Amino acid sequence: MTPGLTVVVDYGLCNLDSMVRALEECGATEVECSRDPQVVRRAARVVLPGVGSFAVAMRNLKETGLLDAIREVSATGVVPFLGACLGMQLMATVGTEGVAYGTIEGLGLVEGEVIRLAPQSNDERIPHIGWNDVQARPGSTLFNDIPGAGDFYFVHSYHLRLANMSDETGRSSYCGGFTAAIQLQGRPIFGVQFHPEKSQKNGFRLLKNFLSV
Amino acid sequence: MLKTRIIPTLLFKGFGLVKGKGFDSWRRVGTALQSIRVYNLREVDELIFLDIAATPEKKTPDFRQIDELADNCFMPMTVGGGVTTIDDIRDLLAVGADKVAINTSALEIPELVRDGAREFGSQCIVVSIDVRKAANGKREVTSHCGKCATGRDPVEWAREVEALGAGEILLTSVERDGTMIGYDVDLLRDVSAAVNVPVIASGGCGNYGHMAEVLSSTRVSALAAASIFHFTAQTPREAKCYLAERGFQVRL
Q1: Radius of gyration of chain A (CA)
Q2: Cα distance from B118 to chain A (closest Cα, Å)?
Q3: Are β-strands A128-136 and B125-133 bridged in parallel, bridged antiparallel, or unpaired?
Q4: Residue A127: is the preceding peptide bond cis (ω within 30°)?
Q5: Of the candidates B49, B28, B57, the residue with the CA atom closest to the CA atom of residue B230
Q6: For site-directed labelling of A13, which of A32, A90, A180, B140 has its Cα 20 to 30 A away?
Q7: Do B121 and A51 touch (CB under 8 A)?
Q8: In this complex, how many residue pairs, one in chain A and one in chain B, have their CB atoms less than 8 Å apart?
């Protein structure tokens, strides 16, 4: 893995310990949870985890100044960035969760909108909770060495609908199919809809891949 | 395909894990940390950890303990027991719970389910429903770890909590709990047919056949079990092999 400070962004909503522990188990030597924009600015890589509602998360990111810091470091094109679950959704241009009508602005790292999953049958329940397989795009960095159609742990009701499908690196078939993983073309900016820190072998392999970028 | 989850339930009381019968006659079954480490190695799908003494003893969740357990838990964990405020939910998520289970408080302050779902998203709010037969033969929801009858019908209550924003329902038959005679299939069928959020079956599992029975005749999304894993040599892994051979979707 590549050395340097891994910053797990703390915006006051989520489950940071398990992400930190998982990154450490995967070989990250310096991991820090922080809500300080300056710490994010000097990170060697940034992880944006997530549980919570889109609107509340964006409000917190704005109030803490983390929003600008994240946009700055991801704009450099050299600092690897991983958004997980809500963290990936926040990367979108706009979201719809937690607002009565209309949309709310996201981080805008990737072009797309976050909308509710739409069940295609009676058996598809929302939230989508549990282990589901992800079809990875061959050659994608994050899924290196992960067996085809590996299972990952999901817990979400919304998903990211990309404007450009070329950003998609992993797909789930639930609810007619949705984007389960993304990477911006030619840049170390990644997102996963599942929880790698809770996805055991496959999740840890994926985090190791991220740490090696 | 989304897999059916097999979920060991860990019940915590006082100093360690316990398992009873019909929500009574608790026996000690080891320490929480030990169990979590074993389940890590076995790569179980998910865990449920419930502090069953918290609500009856009017205690808040033991955040320090959950923090330690969550730090050692590399699988998704639902935590419940003594949750009465939004801050309790926030703090449990902050120390590492993936989902928070609410039972008595959902009955006493239904807004907690609504506000929790708004603030943190439905996906992390689990409403736990304990059901037993009333004197008149009808099913009713109980609170305070099965001690207080509420007169509420479980199907109606499940619909209500779904409307409030619950993202999942943990449905336990109090009479079946710890008996190992099989799940209450009728109850599970009726509730899982009435709602569109995932339902976790709980109470009564004694062998893998009981699991298959529920999956073939109800629409539950996950199977919780405790006694079978505490008191017999049966394991979550073997359960899944058994189910896979019979055509059910599980993660192996």
Answers
A1: 16
A2: 7
A3: unpaired
A4: yes
A5: B28
A6: A180
A7: yes
A8: 114
Q: Which residue has the tokens 């480490």?
A: B37
The secondary element (H helix, E strand) that includes residue B197 is none
Query: ipTM exceeding 0.90?
Result: yes
Nearest 5°: phi and psi at A20? -60, -50
Length of chain A: 213
pLDDT higher than 90, residue B81: yes
Whether the CB of B41 is below 8 Å from some CB of chain A: the reply is no
What is the three-class DSSP state of B196?
Answer: coil
Nearest-Å Rg of the Cα atoms of chain B is: 16
Interface residue B124 vs chain A (CB under 8 A): yes
CA dihedral B82, B84, B89, B90 (to 10 degrees): -120
Q: Does B237 touch chain A (CB under 8 A)?
A: no
**Encoded tokens for B216:** 């073939």
Mean pLDDT of A123-128: 93
**Residue A187: alpha-carbon gap to chain centroid:** 15
